[in-house]
UniProtKB/TrEMBL annotation:
<keyword id="KW-0479">Metal-binding</keyword>
<dbReference type="InterPro" id="IPR017972">
    <property type="entry name" value="Cyt_P450_CS"/>
</dbReference>
<dbReference type="GO" id="GO:0004497">
    <property type="term" value="F:monooxygenase activity"/>
</dbReference>
<dbReference type="InterPro" id="IPR002401">
    <property type="entry name" value="Cyt_P450_E_grp-I"/>
</dbReference>
<keyword id="KW-0408">Iron</keyword>
<dbReference type="GO" id="GO:0005506">
    <property type="term" value="F:iron ion binding"/>
</dbReference>
<dbReference type="InterPro" id="IPR050196">
    <property type="entry name" value="Cytochrome_P450_Monoox"/>
</dbReference>
<comment type="similarity">
    <text>Belongs to the cytochrome P450 family.</text>
</comment>
<dbReference type="Pfam" id="PF00067">
    <property type="entry name" value="p450"/>
</dbReference>
<dbReference type="InterPro" id="IPR036396">
    <property type="entry name" value="Cyt_P450_sf"/>
</dbReference>
<feature type="binding site" description="axial binding residue">
    <location>
        <position position="441"/>
    </location>
    <ligand>
        <name>heme</name>
    </ligand>
</feature>
<keyword id="KW-0560">Oxidoreductase</keyword>
<dbReference type="GO" id="GO:0016705">
    <property type="term" value="F:oxidoreductase activity, acting on paired donors, with incorporation or reduction of molecular oxygen"/>
</dbReference>
<dbReference type="GO" id="GO:0020037">
    <property type="term" value="F:heme binding"/>
</dbReference>
<dbReference type="InterPro" id="IPR001128">
    <property type="entry name" value="Cyt_P450"/>
</dbReference>
<keyword id="KW-0503">Monooxygenase</keyword>
<keyword id="KW-0349">Heme</keyword>
Amino acid sequence: MCNVLVSVICVLLSLCLYKWYRNYKYLQQFDWLPPKPGWPIIGNSLEFKDLTDVLSTLIKLIPKKEKMILLKIAGVPNLMVADYDFTEFILSNPNILHKSADYKFYRKWLGTGLLIGGGSKWKSRRRIIAPSFNFSILENFLEVFDSNGNIFINKLKKHIDEDKINIDRFITLYTLDVICETAMGVKVNAQINENSQYVQNVQLMCKIGMIRATSIIKKSNLLYPLTPDYYRELRAIKQLHDVTDAVIEERSLTCSTDEDKEDLNEYGLKKKMAFLDLLLNTRVDGQPLSHEDIREEVDTFMFAGHDTTASAISFCVYFLSENPDVQEQAMEEQKAIFGDDINRKSTLNDLQMMKYLECVIKETLRLCPSVPLYGRQLREDVYYKGNLLPKGLDIYIFPYGMHRDTDYYPDPEKFDPTRFENLDGKRPYKFVPFSLGPRNCVGQKFAMLEMKSIVSKLLRNFEILPTIPKHTLHFVSETVLKSTNGVRIRLKTRKW
Protein backbone atom coordinates (compact mmCIF):
# COMPACT_ATOMS: atom_id res chain seq x y z
CA MET A 1 0.00 0.00 0.00
CA CYS A 2 2.81 2.39 0.89
CA ASN A 3 4.51 1.79 -2.46
CA VAL A 4 1.28 2.50 -4.33
CA LEU A 5 0.81 5.77 -2.42
CA VAL A 6 4.38 6.83 -3.15
CA SER A 7 3.86 6.02 -6.83
CA VAL A 8 0.66 8.10 -6.99
CA ILE A 9 2.37 11.05 -5.31
CA CYS A 10 5.30 10.80 -7.72
CA VAL A 11 2.96 10.76 -10.71
CA LEU A 12 1.05 13.79 -9.43
CA LEU A 13 4.26 15.69 -8.74
CA SER A 14 5.55 14.81 -12.20
CA LEU A 15 2.35 16.08 -13.80
CA CYS A 16 2.52 19.31 -11.79
CA LEU A 17 6.16 19.84 -12.74
CA TYR A 18 5.41 19.11 -16.39
CA LYS A 19 2.52 21.59 -16.37
CA TRP A 20 4.66 24.18 -14.61
CA TYR A 21 7.44 23.70 -17.17
CA ARG A 22 5.05 24.05 -20.13
CA ASN A 23 3.55 27.16 -18.58
CA TYR A 24 7.03 28.57 -17.92
CA LYS A 25 8.11 28.00 -21.54
CA TYR A 26 4.83 29.49 -22.78
CA LEU A 27 5.25 32.63 -20.67
CA GLN A 28 8.83 33.10 -21.92
CA GLN A 29 7.35 34.00 -25.29
CA PHE A 30 5.95 37.18 -23.73
CA ASP A 31 9.21 38.64 -22.45
CA TRP A 32 8.69 41.68 -24.73
CA LEU A 33 5.51 42.62 -22.87
CA PRO A 34 5.33 44.45 -19.52
CA PRO A 35 4.27 41.72 -17.03
CA LYS A 36 2.42 42.17 -13.78
CA PRO A 37 3.94 39.92 -11.09
CA GLY A 38 1.38 37.64 -9.52
CA TRP A 39 0.95 34.69 -7.19
CA PRO A 40 1.75 31.10 -8.12
CA ILE A 41 -1.15 29.28 -9.81
CA ILE A 42 -3.75 32.06 -9.29
CA GLY A 43 -1.66 34.75 -11.00
CA ASN A 44 -3.24 38.23 -10.81
CA SER A 45 -6.75 37.11 -9.90
CA LEU A 46 -6.60 38.81 -6.48
CA GLU A 47 -6.18 42.19 -8.19
CA PHE A 48 -9.90 42.06 -8.96
CA LYS A 49 -11.79 42.02 -5.68
CA ASP A 50 -15.25 42.33 -7.27
CA LEU A 51 -16.91 43.56 -10.46
CA THR A 52 -17.07 47.16 -9.25
CA ASP A 53 -13.29 47.61 -9.46
CA VAL A 54 -12.48 45.74 -12.70
CA LEU A 55 -12.41 48.87 -14.86
CA SER A 56 -10.54 51.13 -12.45
CA THR A 57 -8.03 48.35 -11.69
CA LEU A 58 -7.30 47.80 -15.37
CA ILE A 59 -6.73 51.52 -15.90
CA LYS A 60 -4.23 51.50 -13.01
CA LEU A 61 -2.47 48.33 -14.17
CA ILE A 62 -2.06 49.10 -17.88
CA PRO A 63 1.15 51.14 -18.35
CA LYS A 64 0.70 54.60 -19.88
CA LYS A 65 3.60 54.07 -22.26
CA GLU A 66 3.08 50.56 -23.64
CA LYS A 67 -0.71 50.68 -23.15
CA MET A 68 -0.86 46.90 -22.79
CA ILE A 69 -0.06 44.40 -20.09
CA LEU A 70 0.05 40.64 -19.65
CA LEU A 71 -2.08 39.48 -16.72
CA LYS A 72 -2.51 35.93 -15.50
CA ILE A 73 -6.13 35.38 -14.46
CA ALA A 74 -6.47 32.10 -12.61
CA GLY A 75 -3.02 31.34 -13.99
CA VAL A 76 -4.06 31.85 -17.65
CA PRO A 77 -2.23 34.59 -19.63
CA ASN A 78 -4.49 37.41 -20.87
CA LEU A 79 -3.22 40.38 -22.85
CA MET A 80 -5.06 43.58 -21.92
CA VAL A 81 -4.82 46.29 -24.59
CA ALA A 82 -5.62 50.01 -24.73
CA ASP A 83 -3.18 50.82 -27.54
CA TYR A 84 -4.37 52.24 -30.86
CA ASP A 85 -1.95 50.44 -33.19
CA PHE A 86 -2.45 47.07 -31.54
CA THR A 87 -6.23 47.50 -31.48
CA GLU A 88 -6.24 48.24 -35.20
CA PHE A 89 -3.95 45.25 -35.85
CA ILE A 90 -6.27 42.85 -34.01
CA LEU A 91 -9.70 44.14 -35.08
CA SER A 92 -8.82 44.65 -38.75
CA ASN A 93 -7.18 41.25 -39.18
CA PRO A 94 -9.51 38.94 -41.18
CA ASN A 95 -7.83 35.91 -39.62
CA ILE A 96 -8.41 36.92 -35.99
CA LEU A 97 -12.15 36.34 -35.72
CA HIS A 98 -12.58 33.93 -32.81
CA LYS A 99 -13.87 35.29 -29.52
CA SER A 100 -11.81 34.83 -26.36
CA ALA A 101 -12.25 31.84 -24.06
CA ASP A 102 -14.40 33.71 -21.53
CA TYR A 103 -17.27 33.90 -24.03
CA LYS A 104 -17.77 30.18 -23.37
CA PHE A 105 -19.50 31.17 -20.13
CA TYR A 106 -22.45 32.38 -22.24
CA ARG A 107 -22.53 29.36 -24.56
CA LYS A 108 -25.25 27.45 -22.66
CA TRP A 109 -27.51 30.46 -23.19
CA LEU A 110 -26.46 31.84 -26.59
CA GLY A 111 -25.00 28.75 -28.24
CA THR A 112 -22.48 29.44 -30.99
CA GLY A 113 -24.46 32.08 -32.84
CA LEU A 114 -23.29 35.33 -34.37
CA LEU A 115 -21.88 36.79 -31.14
CA ILE A 116 -19.87 33.79 -29.90
CA GLY A 117 -19.32 31.56 -32.93
CA GLY A 118 -16.37 31.63 -35.29
CA GLY A 119 -15.06 30.12 -38.49
CA SER A 120 -17.27 29.14 -41.40
CA LYS A 121 -20.42 29.02 -39.25
CA TRP A 122 -19.95 32.65 -38.19
CA LYS A 123 -19.30 33.77 -41.79
CA SER A 124 -22.42 31.97 -43.00
CA ARG A 125 -24.59 33.50 -40.26
CA ARG A 126 -23.17 36.96 -40.91
CA ARG A 127 -24.15 36.70 -44.58
CA ILE A 128 -27.65 35.59 -43.60
CA ILE A 129 -28.25 38.23 -40.94
CA ALA A 130 -26.57 41.34 -42.41
CA PRO A 131 -29.41 42.14 -44.90
CA SER A 132 -31.91 42.43 -42.03
CA PHE A 133 -30.12 45.60 -40.91
CA ASN A 134 -30.54 47.39 -44.22
CA PHE A 135 -32.33 50.75 -43.89
CA SER A 136 -35.21 49.51 -46.07
CA ILE A 137 -36.06 47.04 -43.28
CA LEU A 138 -35.02 49.18 -40.33
CA GLU A 139 -37.36 51.97 -41.42
CA ASN A 140 -40.31 49.72 -40.66
CA PHE A 141 -39.16 49.37 -37.06
CA LEU A 142 -39.67 53.10 -36.46
CA GLU A 143 -43.33 52.46 -35.64
CA VAL A 144 -42.22 50.00 -32.93
CA PHE A 145 -39.78 52.58 -31.52
CA ASP A 146 -42.49 55.24 -31.52
CA SER A 147 -45.39 53.25 -30.03
CA ASN A 148 -43.26 51.86 -27.20
CA GLY A 149 -41.67 55.29 -26.80
CA ASN A 150 -45.12 56.77 -26.14
CA ILE A 151 -45.68 54.26 -23.33
CA PHE A 152 -42.26 55.21 -21.95
CA ILE A 153 -43.09 58.94 -21.97
CA ASN A 154 -46.49 58.42 -20.34
CA LYS A 155 -44.88 56.35 -17.59
CA LEU A 156 -42.37 59.13 -16.90
CA LYS A 157 -45.08 61.79 -16.74
CA LYS A 158 -46.22 60.17 -13.50
CA HIS A 159 -42.81 60.96 -11.98
CA ILE A 160 -42.49 64.64 -12.90
CA ASP A 161 -40.69 66.70 -10.25
CA GLU A 162 -39.54 63.66 -8.27
CA ASP A 163 -36.13 64.23 -6.70
CA LYS A 164 -34.37 61.12 -8.00
CA ILE A 165 -35.77 59.10 -10.88
CA ASN A 166 -33.78 55.98 -11.72
CA ILE A 167 -34.16 56.37 -15.48
CA ASP A 168 -32.27 53.13 -16.14
CA ARG A 169 -35.20 51.07 -14.84
CA PHE A 170 -37.66 52.66 -17.29
CA ILE A 171 -35.28 52.51 -20.25
CA THR A 172 -34.44 48.84 -19.68
CA LEU A 173 -38.13 47.93 -19.91
CA TYR A 174 -38.56 50.11 -23.00
CA THR A 175 -35.70 48.43 -24.83
CA LEU A 176 -37.04 45.01 -23.87
CA ASP A 177 -40.42 45.88 -25.41
CA VAL A 178 -38.68 47.09 -28.56
CA ILE A 179 -36.38 44.11 -28.96
CA CYS A 180 -39.14 41.55 -28.37
CA GLU A 181 -41.29 43.15 -31.03
CA THR A 182 -38.53 43.63 -33.59
CA ALA A 183 -36.65 40.39 -32.95
CA MET A 184 -39.49 37.98 -32.23
CA GLY A 185 -42.55 39.80 -33.50
CA VAL A 186 -44.36 39.61 -30.16
CA LYS A 187 -45.49 42.17 -27.61
CA VAL A 188 -44.48 41.39 -24.03
CA ASN A 189 -45.66 44.70 -22.50
CA ALA A 190 -42.69 44.83 -20.14
CA GLN A 191 -43.30 48.53 -19.44
CA ILE A 192 -46.81 47.75 -18.25
CA ASN A 193 -45.83 44.59 -16.39
CA GLU A 194 -42.67 45.96 -14.77
CA ASN A 195 -41.61 42.83 -12.88
CA SER A 196 -40.15 41.20 -15.96
CA GLN A 197 -38.52 37.85 -15.21
CA TYR A 198 -36.84 38.04 -18.61
CA VAL A 199 -35.00 41.26 -17.66
CA GLN A 200 -33.91 39.77 -14.35
CA ASN A 201 -32.58 36.65 -16.06
CA VAL A 202 -30.65 38.60 -18.69
CA GLN A 203 -29.06 40.76 -16.01
CA LEU A 204 -28.19 37.66 -13.95
CA MET A 205 -26.50 36.00 -16.94
CA CYS A 206 -24.44 39.13 -17.65
CA LYS A 207 -23.29 39.28 -14.05
CA ILE A 208 -22.47 35.58 -13.77
CA GLY A 209 -20.45 35.62 -17.00
CA MET A 210 -18.20 38.38 -15.71
CA ILE A 211 -17.87 36.79 -12.26
CA ARG A 212 -16.75 33.50 -13.81
CA ALA A 213 -14.18 35.32 -15.94
CA THR A 214 -12.41 36.68 -12.84
CA SER A 215 -13.07 33.97 -10.23
CA ILE A 216 -10.55 31.21 -9.57
CA ILE A 217 -13.22 28.73 -8.46
CA LYS A 218 -16.08 29.65 -10.80
CA LYS A 219 -13.80 29.71 -13.85
CA SER A 220 -13.27 25.96 -13.38
CA ASN A 221 -15.88 23.69 -14.97
CA LEU A 222 -15.03 21.13 -12.28
CA LEU A 223 -15.56 23.46 -9.30
CA TYR A 224 -18.30 25.73 -10.63
CA PRO A 225 -21.14 23.18 -10.02
CA LEU A 226 -20.24 23.35 -6.32
CA THR A 227 -21.39 27.01 -6.17
CA PRO A 228 -24.93 28.46 -5.94
CA ASP A 229 -24.39 30.50 -9.13
CA TYR A 230 -24.30 27.27 -11.16
CA TYR A 231 -27.89 26.43 -10.23
CA ARG A 232 -29.06 30.02 -10.56
CA GLU A 233 -27.62 30.02 -14.07
CA LEU A 234 -29.36 26.77 -15.02
CA ARG A 235 -32.74 28.13 -13.86
CA ALA A 236 -32.22 31.43 -15.72
CA ILE A 237 -31.20 29.71 -18.96
CA LYS A 238 -34.20 27.38 -18.85
CA GLN A 239 -36.57 30.30 -18.40
CA LEU A 240 -34.89 32.32 -21.16
CA HIS A 241 -34.99 29.36 -23.57
CA ASP A 242 -38.61 28.59 -22.67
CA VAL A 243 -39.62 32.08 -23.78
CA THR A 244 -37.73 31.85 -27.07
CA ASP A 245 -38.88 28.29 -27.80
CA ALA A 246 -42.54 29.19 -27.28
CA VAL A 247 -42.32 32.17 -29.62
CA ILE A 248 -40.46 30.20 -32.31
CA GLU A 249 -43.10 27.46 -32.24
CA GLU A 250 -45.95 29.95 -32.48
CA ARG A 251 -44.26 32.10 -35.11
CA SER A 252 -43.31 29.15 -37.30
CA LEU A 253 -47.01 28.33 -37.72
CA THR A 254 -47.76 31.77 -39.16
CA CYS A 255 -44.50 32.27 -41.06
CA SER A 256 -44.93 33.70 -44.56
CA THR A 257 -44.87 31.12 -47.35
CA ASP A 258 -43.34 31.18 -50.79
CA GLU A 259 -46.73 32.23 -52.15
CA ASP A 260 -46.79 35.26 -49.85
CA LYS A 261 -44.70 37.60 -51.97
CA GLU A 262 -46.34 40.97 -51.44
CA ASP A 263 -44.38 43.99 -50.26
CA LEU A 264 -40.87 42.59 -50.75
CA ASN A 265 -37.67 44.62 -50.55
CA GLU A 266 -34.64 44.35 -52.81
CA TYR A 267 -33.39 41.35 -50.84
CA GLY A 268 -36.58 39.39 -51.46
CA LEU A 269 -37.65 39.78 -47.83
CA LYS A 270 -40.94 41.15 -46.57
CA LYS A 271 -40.41 44.68 -45.35
CA LYS A 272 -42.49 44.22 -42.21
CA MET A 273 -40.67 41.17 -40.99
CA ALA A 274 -39.35 40.42 -37.51
CA PHE A 275 -35.83 39.11 -37.17
CA LEU A 276 -37.28 35.70 -36.28
CA ASP A 277 -39.29 35.62 -39.52
CA LEU A 278 -36.11 36.19 -41.48
CA LEU A 279 -34.51 33.16 -39.83
CA LEU A 280 -37.59 30.99 -40.31
CA ASN A 281 -37.56 31.79 -44.04
CA THR A 282 -33.83 31.23 -44.46
CA ARG A 283 -32.53 28.26 -46.44
CA VAL A 284 -28.92 27.06 -46.45
CA ASP A 285 -28.21 24.63 -49.29
CA GLY A 286 -31.95 24.27 -49.65
CA GLN A 287 -32.47 23.31 -46.00
CA PRO A 288 -34.12 25.45 -43.29
CA LEU A 289 -32.21 26.37 -40.15
CA SER A 290 -32.75 24.03 -37.23
CA HIS A 291 -34.78 25.09 -34.19
CA GLU A 292 -31.55 25.30 -32.18
CA ASP A 293 -29.88 27.44 -34.87
CA ILE A 294 -32.80 29.84 -34.86
CA ARG A 295 -33.00 29.99 -31.07
CA GLU A 296 -29.33 30.84 -30.59
CA GLU A 297 -29.54 33.73 -33.08
CA VAL A 298 -32.76 35.11 -31.58
CA ASP A 299 -31.30 34.83 -28.06
CA THR A 300 -28.14 36.56 -29.28
CA PHE A 301 -30.13 39.40 -30.79
CA MET A 302 -32.26 39.70 -27.65
CA PHE A 303 -29.12 40.00 -25.51
CA ALA A 304 -26.99 42.16 -27.80
CA GLY A 305 -29.83 44.50 -28.73
CA HIS A 306 -31.45 44.94 -25.34
CA ASP A 307 -29.13 45.47 -22.39
CA THR A 308 -26.37 47.17 -24.39
CA THR A 309 -28.78 49.70 -25.89
CA ALA A 310 -30.44 50.35 -22.54
CA SER A 311 -27.04 51.07 -21.00
CA ALA A 312 -26.12 53.58 -23.71
CA ILE A 313 -29.47 55.40 -23.57
CA SER A 314 -29.41 55.65 -19.77
CA PHE A 315 -25.91 57.15 -19.67
CA CYS A 316 -26.80 59.51 -22.54
CA VAL A 317 -29.77 60.87 -20.57
CA TYR A 318 -27.56 61.26 -17.50
CA PHE A 319 -24.95 63.29 -19.43
CA LEU A 320 -27.70 65.50 -20.88
CA SER A 321 -28.91 66.21 -17.34
CA GLU A 322 -25.39 67.15 -16.22
CA ASN A 323 -24.58 69.30 -19.28
CA PRO A 324 -27.36 71.87 -19.84
CA ASP A 325 -25.46 73.58 -22.68
CA VAL A 326 -25.29 70.28 -24.57
CA GLN A 327 -28.97 69.63 -23.88
CA GLU A 328 -29.89 73.10 -25.14
CA GLN A 329 -28.02 72.58 -28.41
CA ALA A 330 -29.62 69.15 -28.86
CA MET A 331 -33.01 70.74 -28.23
CA GLU A 332 -32.39 73.47 -30.81
CA GLU A 333 -31.77 70.73 -33.35
CA GLN A 334 -35.09 69.11 -32.40
CA LYS A 335 -36.92 72.41 -32.86
CA ALA A 336 -35.37 72.85 -36.28
CA ILE A 337 -36.58 69.38 -37.32
CA PHE A 338 -40.05 69.25 -35.71
CA GLY A 339 -41.05 72.89 -35.47
CA ASP A 340 -44.20 73.26 -33.36
CA ASP A 341 -45.38 69.71 -33.98
CA ILE A 342 -43.48 68.06 -31.14
CA ASN A 343 -45.72 65.01 -31.01
CA ARG A 344 -45.43 63.83 -34.59
CA LYS A 345 -43.68 60.56 -35.28
CA SER A 346 -40.04 60.61 -36.25
CA THR A 347 -39.35 59.62 -39.82
CA LEU A 348 -36.15 57.97 -41.02
CA ASN A 349 -35.17 61.30 -42.56
CA ASP A 350 -35.77 63.08 -39.22
CA LEU A 351 -33.47 60.66 -37.42
CA GLN A 352 -30.78 60.95 -40.08
CA MET A 353 -30.91 64.76 -39.72
CA MET A 354 -30.14 64.56 -35.99
CA LYS A 355 -26.40 65.05 -36.49
CA TYR A 356 -25.73 66.76 -33.17
CA LEU A 357 -27.75 64.19 -31.21
CA GLU A 358 -25.68 61.50 -32.92
CA CYS A 359 -22.55 63.26 -31.64
CA VAL A 360 -24.07 63.30 -28.14
CA ILE A 361 -24.68 59.55 -28.35
CA LYS A 362 -21.18 58.89 -29.66
CA GLU A 363 -19.64 60.96 -26.88
CA THR A 364 -21.71 58.94 -24.40
CA LEU A 365 -20.36 55.72 -25.93
CA ARG A 366 -16.83 57.11 -25.72
CA LEU A 367 -17.06 57.64 -21.97
CA CYS A 368 -19.40 54.72 -21.32
CA PRO A 369 -18.98 52.03 -23.99
CA SER A 370 -21.78 49.52 -23.48
CA VAL A 371 -19.26 46.67 -23.67
CA PRO A 372 -16.18 48.06 -21.90
CA LEU A 373 -13.98 45.00 -22.53
CA TYR A 374 -14.14 42.40 -25.31
CA GLY A 375 -11.81 39.67 -26.43
CA ARG A 376 -10.33 37.69 -29.31
CA GLN A 377 -8.45 34.39 -29.23
CA LEU A 378 -5.55 33.55 -31.54
CA ARG A 379 -6.00 30.26 -33.40
CA GLU A 380 -2.49 30.42 -34.86
CA ASP A 381 0.84 32.11 -34.09
CA VAL A 382 0.82 35.79 -35.04
CA TYR A 383 3.65 38.31 -35.20
CA TYR A 384 3.15 41.94 -34.19
CA LYS A 385 6.03 44.31 -34.96
CA GLY A 386 8.40 41.32 -35.00
CA ASN A 387 7.17 39.93 -31.67
CA LEU A 388 5.46 36.56 -31.32
CA LEU A 389 1.87 36.26 -30.10
CA PRO A 390 1.42 32.50 -29.64
CA LYS A 391 -1.54 30.41 -30.61
CA GLY A 392 -4.17 30.18 -27.88
CA LEU A 393 -3.55 33.65 -26.41
CA ASP A 394 -6.63 35.59 -25.29
CA ILE A 395 -6.42 39.30 -26.18
CA TYR A 396 -8.79 41.82 -24.60
CA ILE A 397 -9.48 45.18 -26.21
CA PHE A 398 -10.24 47.76 -23.51
CA PRO A 399 -12.26 50.61 -25.10
CA TYR A 400 -13.24 52.02 -21.68
CA GLY A 401 -9.55 52.72 -21.03
CA MET A 402 -8.55 53.74 -24.55
CA HIS A 403 -11.45 56.20 -24.83
CA ARG A 404 -10.21 57.96 -21.68
CA ASP A 405 -6.56 58.23 -22.75
CA THR A 406 -5.15 61.76 -23.18
CA ASP A 407 -3.05 60.52 -26.12
CA TYR A 408 -6.24 59.94 -28.09
CA TYR A 409 -8.68 62.48 -26.64
CA PRO A 410 -7.77 65.89 -25.19
CA ASP A 411 -9.37 66.45 -21.79
CA PRO A 412 -10.90 62.96 -21.97
CA GLU A 413 -13.07 63.19 -18.84
CA LYS A 414 -14.98 66.16 -20.27
CA PHE A 415 -18.29 65.43 -21.99
CA ASP A 416 -17.83 67.18 -25.33
CA PRO A 417 -19.94 66.01 -28.32
CA THR A 418 -18.16 68.43 -30.66
CA ARG A 419 -15.26 65.95 -30.76
CA PHE A 420 -17.28 64.03 -33.33
CA GLU A 421 -18.38 66.94 -35.52
CA ASN A 422 -15.33 67.24 -37.76
CA LEU A 423 -13.53 63.92 -37.73
CA ASP A 424 -10.97 63.42 -40.49
CA GLY A 425 -11.22 59.63 -40.36
CA LYS A 426 -7.47 59.18 -39.96
CA ARG A 427 -7.60 57.20 -36.71
CA PRO A 428 -10.90 55.30 -36.72
CA TYR A 429 -9.75 52.65 -34.24
CA LYS A 430 -9.57 55.06 -31.33
CA PHE A 431 -13.39 54.87 -31.08
CA VAL A 432 -14.50 51.25 -30.89
CA PRO A 433 -17.72 50.89 -28.84
CA PHE A 434 -19.20 48.78 -31.65
CA SER A 435 -15.83 47.18 -32.44
CA LEU A 436 -14.52 47.63 -35.99
CA GLY A 437 -13.33 45.44 -38.82
CA PRO A 438 -14.93 42.20 -39.98
CA ARG A 439 -16.50 41.44 -36.58
CA ASN A 440 -17.99 44.86 -35.99
CA CYS A 441 -21.47 45.04 -34.48
CA VAL A 442 -23.93 44.08 -37.21
CA GLY A 443 -26.77 45.84 -35.36
CA GLN A 444 -25.18 49.25 -34.84
CA LYS A 445 -27.50 51.02 -37.33
CA PHE A 446 -30.48 49.55 -35.52
CA ALA A 447 -29.07 50.66 -32.16
CA MET A 448 -28.34 54.20 -33.33
CA LEU A 449 -31.84 54.66 -34.77
CA GLU A 450 -33.44 53.34 -31.58
CA MET A 451 -31.29 55.58 -29.38
CA LYS A 452 -32.00 58.67 -31.47
CA SER A 453 -35.72 57.92 -31.53
CA ILE A 454 -36.18 57.63 -27.77
CA VAL A 455 -33.77 60.41 -26.71
CA SER A 456 -35.42 62.73 -29.23
CA LYS A 457 -38.85 61.94 -27.78
CA LEU A 458 -37.53 62.45 -24.25
CA LEU A 459 -36.02 65.84 -25.14
CA ARG A 460 -39.22 67.03 -26.81
CA ASN A 461 -41.29 66.22 -23.72
CA PHE A 462 -39.04 67.01 -20.76
CA GLU A 463 -36.28 69.17 -19.45
CA ILE A 464 -33.74 66.69 -18.12
CA LEU A 465 -32.26 67.97 -14.86
CA PRO A 466 -29.54 66.77 -12.49
CA THR A 467 -30.36 65.51 -9.02
CA ILE A 468 -29.63 67.62 -5.96
CA PRO A 469 -27.18 66.72 -4.57
CA LYS A 470 -25.37 65.54 -7.69
CA HIS A 471 -25.74 61.85 -8.49
CA THR A 472 -22.38 60.17 -9.13
CA LEU A 473 -22.29 57.04 -11.27
CA HIS A 474 -20.63 53.96 -9.77
CA PHE A 475 -19.58 51.86 -12.74
CA VAL A 476 -19.61 48.08 -12.74
CA SER A 477 -18.64 45.81 -15.60
CA GLU A 478 -21.19 42.98 -15.85
CA THR A 479 -20.41 42.21 -19.50
CA VAL A 480 -22.48 45.34 -20.16
CA LEU A 481 -21.49 48.57 -18.41
CA LYS A 482 -23.87 49.49 -15.58
CA SER A 483 -24.08 51.81 -12.59
CA THR A 484 -24.51 50.00 -9.28
CA ASN A 485 -26.40 52.93 -7.76
CA GLY A 486 -28.65 53.49 -10.75
CA VAL A 487 -28.74 56.37 -13.24
CA ARG A 488 -30.68 59.11 -11.48
CA ILE A 489 -32.08 62.35 -12.89
CA ARG A 490 -34.99 64.79 -12.46
CA LEU A 491 -37.63 65.66 -15.07
CA LYS A 492 -39.67 68.77 -15.72
CA THR A 493 -42.36 69.23 -18.37
CA ARG A 494 -40.81 71.08 -21.30
CA LYS A 495 -42.49 74.29 -22.45
CA TRP A 496 -42.05 75.20 -26.12
